[in-house]
Amino acid sequence: MPVRVLVLGAGFGGPELSSRLAEGSGDDVRVTLIDKSDAFVFGFSKLDVMFGRQTMDEVRLPYRDIAWPNVQFRQETVVSIDAEHKRVVTDKGAHEGDIIGKVDLPLPIWAGAGIRLHAAVTRGRRRKA
């Protein structure tokens, strides 16, 4: 049975972590990426909008375009997190996972967290085999 990973927060790190988990783990991991927004705007792109070089629609990267195997995007707002029972409640329902990751750290710090989370998923998969 695949390890179910809930990634909360799409921003910059959420899609990166989700894609790495999905690509590196094959069918052993199912990732649900949850964010209240429908798209991401890379920080420096906002300057292009501010100075009139591009429109907001031109720089938006819609999450619906995510096409990674074993990754599902849900546009929902997190209402509560029950870490003990590994359950996340959103404005549209509840999600349960084996691992919950909240990605809202600066990239250098996040990179280490992503590696640790990936290692935890890998260890969990080995333990169940």
Give a short overview:
The chain is an alpha/beta fold and 129 residues long.
Provide a descriptive summary of the structure in words:
α1 (13-25) packs parallel to α4. A hairpin with a 2-residue loop joins β7 and β8 (93-96). Helices cover 35% and strands 30% of the residues. It starts with a strand and ends with a helix. With 129 residues, the protein is α/β, with parallel strands linked by helices. It has 4 helices and 9 strands. It is globular. The strands form 3 sheets. The protein has a 4-stranded parallel beta sheet with strand order 5-2-1-9. The protein has a 3-stranded antiparallel beta sheet with strand order 6-7-8, with no helix packed on it. The protein has a two-stranded antiparallel sheet with strand order 3-4. It has a single domain (3-128), classed as FAD/NAD(P)-binding domain, CATH 3.50.50.60.
For the structure shown, list the relevant keywords:
single chain; 129 residues; alpha/beta; FAD/NAD(P)-binding domain; three-stranded antiparallel beta sheet; globular; disordered C terminus
